[in-house]
Backbone:
């Protein structure tokens, strides 16, 4: 009978197994084994409560059976009774020191509570019994993941999956390892396999939905989450459902979930921000006020709720804003957020005297309040630049960290720039840039200057495509200081856009590794294999074909040895500004590529080399490429969208209004012609070559 029950469970015929187990237990009511099999069948059909009661009945018969204690521990762990599970496991190991499963379950419980050392210790004990067991590999993989060693974790969990491809713990660990590596498409496969075979508890479905969301597939993510959206849904899941619906363009549906999330947990800033965006899209201020007032009636001590209520007031109605602020202050008299909101309302209404007074009061109460100091400095900058500089200089001695000192230094440099202290500003920017450079990427290598490459030395352009053919793969690049990140922001909603090269989950292909430049130049790197490696990696990044916009960290014409013969229907999009402006911008604000500026002179030398390469590529038509000059459009999303739409021949959507990104205006370099004469002299010839005036 036991064999029949086990065979039915292996086939997934849980109802059949349960019927057999009931007959077995009825036939042998005094058999611990019969009750153990019935408990297994009850657990398989989802009746954990009945399974636990049956195991307890079996333990009344065989109190010292280690397998029964282990089975009881597994059921308790499934019900999140960690202490009960731990006690049962300790009894199981006490009765049978060679109980492999007990050590593994104890290790899994240790992982659940974040005790990596204990999980590792228990895994070492289990390894003496079954060193290659997939559950042990899974635990080792999760420990490696917890210690931020994703490559090791992925290798261990992949081995575990080869040995136990249907084990839910293994599949879940493998999905988490793929997520840690940024391989969302593979994580999706593992999670779908897990849910298809075992059903979909809410945490698994939420993980799958988040994985699909990162692949910009919000509607599919919402479909995956839908079975978990029953009546008893935690606020975090409701928030995710609302966020996905909003991303899918379904603001009405988003509000259904977000209202429930607000009712369950009124003071969550992220939920309120999403709800405000949904109300904005629907232009439904009345519903916003009604929902927020209802929430405030139950949670008047939630600052985020008051902030959202204030945000629902029209900008052109300062009296209504003051009325909300009065209620807020009455409910929370010492709330710094209320003081900050009052300061912002004064600014919006043009009362800078009141805003300055409120900012000074807030800064006095909270000396490290960046928003208050920003208002003080901005107002003083317009009234008395020297006083603004003095204010920031007075803050420097109290800066408690390197990050704070670096932030204040950048602030001070901008004030010195505004006050005409160009020598001091330039020196401060360079010092700050050199400080950042130690934590950033070095300057990328540069291959042989284009004019030194013989015309016949370039590989045949077999993948050129006709001029009228649509581009399938677009490679976006702009040097540090070009404000290419603003162009990337406009392209971010285009299907296939990828900015993962700027992140720790960057792909390790030919377009990413610095060694590609010398490898392609001297023939050590096979261009065909390099191109295939890039194509193979697209699937792991959630791209099913080559329809991709790749935002590159660096460019070198050596990459043409890969693109010309081996990447079909591709194009390049180069984004530039006046090279002298780029150098200054790079020093002042860094770059999203995290390439450090070692000094003005060295950075100018490198910029000169790479820009001459770009100019040669464009002039000689070495590849299908478009040059976009965005001088004067920096920080203006509408103007930038127009320039980019014209260059690409396709209309781009303009994102909602947002704070202007930090950048120096076009032509700002001319204020620094004397201070930075040498590096500017180095960059002037290539600037002229790219169409910029000499002076």
Residues:
């Amino acid at each position: 009978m036991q064999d029949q029950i086990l065979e039915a469970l292996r086939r997934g015929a849980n109802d059949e197994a349960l019927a057999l187990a009931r007959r077995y237990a009825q036939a042998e009511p005094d058999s611990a084994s019969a009750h153990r099999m019935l408990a297994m069948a009850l657990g398989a059909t989802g009746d954990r409560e009945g399974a636990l009661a049956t195991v307890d009945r079996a333990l009344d018969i065989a109190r010292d059976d280690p397998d029964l204690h282990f089975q009881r521990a597994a059921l308790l762990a499934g019900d999140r009774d960690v202490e009960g599970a731990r006690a049962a496991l300790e009894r199981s190991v006490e009765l049978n020191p060679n109980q492999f499963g007990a050590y593994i379950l104890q290790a899994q419980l240790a992982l659940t509570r974040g005790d990596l050392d204990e999980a590792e210790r228990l895994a070492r004990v289990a390894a003496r019994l079954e060193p290659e067991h997939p559950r042990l590999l899974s635990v080792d993989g999760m420990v490696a993941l917890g210690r931020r060693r994703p490559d090791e974790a992925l290798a261990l969990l992949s081995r575990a999956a080869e040995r136990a491809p249907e084990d839910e713990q293994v599949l879940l660990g493998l999905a988490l390892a793929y997520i840690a590596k940024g391989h969302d498409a593979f994580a999706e496969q593992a999670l779908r396999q897990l849910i298809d075979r075992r059903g979909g508890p809410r945490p698994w479905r939420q993980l799958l939905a988040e994985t699909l969301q990162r692949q910009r597939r919000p509607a599919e993510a919402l479909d995956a989450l839908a079975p978990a959206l029953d009546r008893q849904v935690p606020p975090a899941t409701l928030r995710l459902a609302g966020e996905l619906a909003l991303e899918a363009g379904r603001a009405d549906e988003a509000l259904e979930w977000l209202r429930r999330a607000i009712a369950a947990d009124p003071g969550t800033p992220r939920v309120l921000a999403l709800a405000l965006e949904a109300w904005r899209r629907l232009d439904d201020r009345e519903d916003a006020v009604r929902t927020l007032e209802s929430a405030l009636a139950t949670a008047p001590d939630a600052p985020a709720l008051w902030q959202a209520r204030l945000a629902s007031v029209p900008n052109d109605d300062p009296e209504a804003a003051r009325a909300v602020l009065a209620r807020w202050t009455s409910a929370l008299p010492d709330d710094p957020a209320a003081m900050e909101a009052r300061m912002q309302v004064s600014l919006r209404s043009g009362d800078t005297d009141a805003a300055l007074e409120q900012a000074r009061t807030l800064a006095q109460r909270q000396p490290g309040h960046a928003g208050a100091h920003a208002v003080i400095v901005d107002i003083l900058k317009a009234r008395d630049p020297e006083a603004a500089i003095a204010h920031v200089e007075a803050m420097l001695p109290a800066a408690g960290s390197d990050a704070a000192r670096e932030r204040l230094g950048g602030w001070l440099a901008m004030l010195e720039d505004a006050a005409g202290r160009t020598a001091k500003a330039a020196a401060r920017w360079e010092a700050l840039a050199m400080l950042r450079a130690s934590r950033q990427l070095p300057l990328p290598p540069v291959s042989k200057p284009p004019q030194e490459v013989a015309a016949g030395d370039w590989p045949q352009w077999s993948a050129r495509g006709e001029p009228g053919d649509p581009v399938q793969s677009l490679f976006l690049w702009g040097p540090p200081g070009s404000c290419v990140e603003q162009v990337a922001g406009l392209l971010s909603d285009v299907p296939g856009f990828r900015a993962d090269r700027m992140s720790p989950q960057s792909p390790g292909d030919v377009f990413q590794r610095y060694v590609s430049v010398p490898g392609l130049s001297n023939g050590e790197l096979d261009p065909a294999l390099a191109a295939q490696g890039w194509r193979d990696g697209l699937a792991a990044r959630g791209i099913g074909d080559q329809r991709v916009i790749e935002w590159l960290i660096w460019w070198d014409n050596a990459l043409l040895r890969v693109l010309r013969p081996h990447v079909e229907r591709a194009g390049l999009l180069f984004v530039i500004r006046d090279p002298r402006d780029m150098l200054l911008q790079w020093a002042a604000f860094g770059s999203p590529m995290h390439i450090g500026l070692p000094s003005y002179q060295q950075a100018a030398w490198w910029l000169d080399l790479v820009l001459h390469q770009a100019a040669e590529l464009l002039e000689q038509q070495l590849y299908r490429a478009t040059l976009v000059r965005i001088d004067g459009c920096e920080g203006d999303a509408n103007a930038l969208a127009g320039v980019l739409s014209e260059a690409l021949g396709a209309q781009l959507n303009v994102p909602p209004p947002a704070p202007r990104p930090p950048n120096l205006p076009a032509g700002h370099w001319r204020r620094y012609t004397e201070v930075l004469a040498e590096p500017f002299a180095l960059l002037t010839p290539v600037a002229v070559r790219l169409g910029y005036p000499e002076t």
User: Anything to note?
Assistant: The chain has 34 helices and five strands. The chain has three domains: 2-225, 227-437, 450-689. Residues 600-619 form the longest helix (20 residues).
